Amino acid sequence: MQNSFEKIQRDFEEFKEADDNTGDAKEFFEKHFGALNLVSSNLILIEQVNSAIKSSSKKDIDALDKKCEEFFTQAFNDLYEKFNKKIKKINIDLVNQFEATCKEPVKKIEFDMNTKEENIKKARQRVQDKSFDTAKRLSNIEQKIMLIQKVTDDLKHLGENS
Questions:
Q1: What is the 3-state secondary structure (H, E, C) of 96-147?
Q2: Exposure string (b/e) for 20-57, b if CB count within 10 Å is 16 or more?
Q3: 3-class DSSP state for residue 15?
C-alpha cells in the first residue's frame, strides 16, 4: 500500500511547475487588479473629501459627514463591482489552470495504463498462440505416430502373409 502511495507521489512530482500566481501577494495583486485603477480611484476619493472639507463650515459637520459617507459608499460600491468582475475572471482562469494541471498527470497515467494494457494483450496473445502451436504440434505428432503404427501394422501383416 505504501509503495502505491510513493509511486503516485513520484508520478505527480514530475508535473510540479512553478506558477506565476505563486509569487508574493503584491505581484499577484498588481498582475490581476492593476487594471482596476485603485490608486487613481483613491486619489479621486481623497480629492472629493478634501474638497468637501474645504467647502463645509465647522458648524455643519453633519452635512460634511453625509457627503463623505456618500463619497465612500460610491467608491466602495464601484470597487465592489470592479472586484467582483475581476474575481469572476480570475476564478475561471484559476479553475481552468487547475484543471489543466490535474489533467497532465491523468493523461500520463492513462497513457501508461493503455501501454501496459496493450503489452498485456500482446503477451496474452503470444501465450495463446504458443499454446495453439503446441496443440497443433501435438496433433501433428499424434497423426505421425498413428501413421507409423499403421505402416508398422501393414508391415507385420505383409511379413505374416509371406
A1: HHHHHHHHHHHHHHHHHHHHHHHHHHHHHHHHHHHHHHHHHHHHHHHHHHHH
A2: eeeeeeeeeeeeebeebeeeeeeeebeebbeebeeebe
A3: coil
Overall pTM > 0.85: no
Look at the alpha carbons of 50, 55, 59, 60 in this order and tell me if their dihedral is positive or negative.
negative
Local structure of 17: helix, strand or coil: coil
The residues, any chain, with a CB within 8 Å of residue 10's CB and separated by 6 or more, are: none
Query: How many Cβ atoms from other residues are within 10 Å of residue 128's Cβ?
Result: 10
Q: What is the pLDDT of residues 68-104, one digit of tens each?
A: 899 889 888 888 888 888 888 888 888 888 888 888 8
Query: Are the beta carbons of 8 and 112 closer than 8 angstroms?
Result: no
pLDDT single digits (tens) 31-58: 766 666 665 677 888 888 888 888 887 7
